[in-house]
Every structure is written in structure tokens, then in C-alpha cells.
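Q: C-alpha cells for this one, please.
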Amino acid sequence: MKKIATIAMAGALALSLVACGGSSASSAAPAASAPAASTASTAASAAATDLTEISAGMCQTPAILTSIGQSADVDIANTLCSKAGIEVTMNKNITGDELPDDCKTLILAVGGSSKGLGAAGIDADQELARTDALIAAAKDKGITILAMHTGGSARRGTLSDSFINPAFEGCDAAIVVSEGDADGLMSGILAKNSTPATYVENTAGALGALQTAFGK
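A: Here is the predicted structure, written as C-alpha cells:
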């Protein structure tokens, strides 16, 4: 019964994530054919096997969720956290100076969107500066940093990759949709830093990874 309930939850989540809508990625990768996508996903999963899995309960609340790149992925991450039973405060533009002292986990929803940056009234350089300062402040306060890349290949390209690098270099743990790391950019950074990570097959799969990370 538990397995059936889990499958039902994943299905419901998938529908809700579609309802969230997608923002445009500035450098979205072309749609791959089914065999190519499967091969890329398999290669990414194989690279991820060398990584240490996220340990149960390594993240704690109070938790703050922010965007790194101003894509709609932050809203999807917020939905995932809600369905996982994890209470988070979402602040898409929080700065290092605004991090509260009682914050235990900072969740980074990573993915660049030129449209989202424009709506926020900032450019990529300003967002990168905020990212660097935010990560530095979190480390100074002893806050656990969890990076999430759930947008797949559609959230890759020059713009998104510029945010992936600092976010994954600075994180303490990561959750990644395998198909979005076909080139091993993220797994390479994570392996180099011995950063624990969980790779999942699709966005809905990140639900269970979040529950593990927060000991749910």
C-alpha cells in the first residue's frame, strides 16, 4: 500500500509541476530523440554512482529557498518541499546580509532564465555577485547549503552553467535530475569536492530525495 501511495503521490506531483509552468531558458538545449535522451541519462547516472549519497537528516529546518538564476525552477522546488512536508521560506532574491541567524539550511534552486532576470530587474553579473555573497554568508553562519538542479537539459546552456558552477562548488549536498547532467558538469564538481548527492530520473523523483535529506 505504501508503494502504491508513493506512486500516486509522484503522479500527482508531476501534474502539479506541469501546472507551475516553465520559464524560458536562455540557452535551452535542443530536444533530443528518445534514444539519445536515454543514453545521456544513463551516462549521467553512471557518473553519479561514484558520488556519496545524501545521508538522512543532513538538512534541517528552518530552511530558506532561493533562486540562483531566477528561473521558474524555484517555484517547482517550493512545490516539492511543500509536498515533502518540509517547511521553507521562499525568497527568490535573498542576500547574504539578509540570512537569519537561525537558518539551518539554504536551498538553491539553480537554473538561469534571461526572462526571470529581466523581471527581477537584474542582469547575470548582479545575480552571480549575489550568489557568491550568499554562499559566503551561509558558510560563515554554518548553514548547510543544498543545491538543486531539476530543470533537466532545458535548464542548461551558457547562462545556466554560469550559475551551476558557483552553486555546486559551494554546496554541501545536491539533488540533480540525471538528464540535465549528461556532460557530467555537476557530477564532476561534486566528485572533486566529495560532496554527497542524489541523482533522480525526473523532477518528481526529487520529492523522495528531499524527504531523505530532511529526515522525513
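A few notes: The first strand starts at residue 63 and ends at 68. The mean pLDDT is 84.
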